[in-house]
Amino acid sequence: MALQARSNMAQRRAFSSAQTSKRVSVTKVRATAIEAENYVKQAPTTLVRPGIDTEDSMRARFEKVIRNAQDSICNAISEIDGKPFHQDAWTRPGGGGGISRVLQDGNVWEKAGVNVSVVYGTMPPEAYRAATGNAEKLKNKGDAGRVPFFAAGISSVMHPRNPHCPTMHFNYRYFETEEWNGIPGQWWFGGGTDITPSYVVPEDMKHFHGTYKAVCDRHDPAYYEKFKNWCDEYFLIKHRGERRGLGGIFFDDLNDRNPEDILKFSTDAVNHVVEAYCPIVKKHMNDPYTPQEKEWQQIRRGRYVEFNLVYDRGTTFGLKTGGRIESILMSMPQTASWLYDHQPKAGSPEAELLDACRNPRTWV
Predict the structure, then answer these.
(1) Scanning 139, 165, 265, 334, which has its CA 20 to 30 A from the CA of 127?
(2) So what's the architecture of 38-358 in CATH?
(3) Chief subcellular site (predicted)?
């Protein structure tokens, strides 16, 4: 998953452009956009290009933020679960690489993964036009060459065993394009943290959303409402008419202020994943549950899979362009279920969850 599968809007729109363009095949995009992985036993201290991207650059500083977050979050999860993460690391000849950490068949989590990616690549001009959101401005700029880009990010999904413990996802990323054909380079941030329970526990949702409202309020009082609504909109499973879960915050293409301020916000947000999520897991990880409650969890995981494979832009782009498949599909649960025409009983806890997914609620 991470940013090799989700290089923000430019890559996501590049996927759409590659689908519709007869000139750029999917294989061509994969062959020239991102170099092949070289697996290493131990991840290097930095994945940015030495001597080119200096320590004080936004690229290097953002990488440091996400590498530190990967360490601290994995440590916190392992401490609760009692089982360590398995790590795969790789580099690429022209710079960049990734670190995938996965905890599988744990005591608390069936599957939990935290991925970091640093990607140097190029995209076709038509993808760049889509990425800028201003095709009219760029239509006479020609098709000379490919547009160099940089992307770095951290992404995670955690699927607990107990149906009373929620699934949680987060992703924080930074993207740059270099100057191309007279068009100045672009930069932006994106990300968010969201929660997907199988049952509604209002005090848990108040804690999770309250944690992120406090993060948002420290940086801009308008952030929480804006990003909460954006999250509810983004995670809509259109063919079901329901959200994947009970939301959180989500933002993309954020470059409306000083990048230092957005870096501080992104850092604050990713550094509050543990505070927002882990107390809820600790509270419920030993709760008793019935086979029927476990079945409901499996059905909701099926919805999770549907969203990720059908609508999640990063996942679909990674699958279509041949990214590292184990990282891309790290987000999938080990088990899920699709029961024919399953309808929860009116007035049941399962029906309440479904209503909350169909009609987003205000939690704080």
Answers:
(1) 265
(2) 3-Layer(aba) Sandwich (3.40)
(3) plastid
